[in-house]
Amino acid sequence: MGIFSTRSERNYKNSFVVGRSKIPKVQQRVELEAEQNGDIVALEIVDTYSNLTAKHLAGLRWGLKNCPGSSFIMKADDDVLVDVRRAIKVLKSSFSGNILACRIVPEGTSPRRSGKWMVTRQDYPFQEYPEYCSGLTYFGALPTIAKIYEAATSGKCLTSGLTMFL
User: Fold this and answer.
1) pTM
2) What one-character-per-residue DSSP string does 21-68 give?
């Protein structure tokens, strides 16, 4: 998750939202990274696929609380490479107001009913998803992120590893 202001090209902060590891040596390295660089948002939940929604919401909450003067919050998965300077340049020149910039997945995508990324019929009983914003990477103005956070914490969320708000 990146928190940044568009007022200056150098005015941004990278933060990594991390849950607890079940492996003591890994947990020690995470704690050392947090101490040395101050870039870890450490959660008291185990870092598992099924906790992604809770981890995502904790990251949004942290950004809203700790970076109130920021122009945007960027969320990116750990396997995504982002050219932050270019992203800031595009955001400064192309967007204003309450925006959410993301890749739109068209309606009609079917839920996976088996495997690692499965969504149970109990969690989502419908045959197809409506149009939605891919969670791989997105940028949102703080007021927009605040609305997403409010809606997500007051409604029903899927807990099968997907960060989806119903």
Assistant:
1) 0.80
2) -SSHHHHHHHHHHHHHH--EEEEEEE--GGGHHHHHHHHHHHHHHH-T
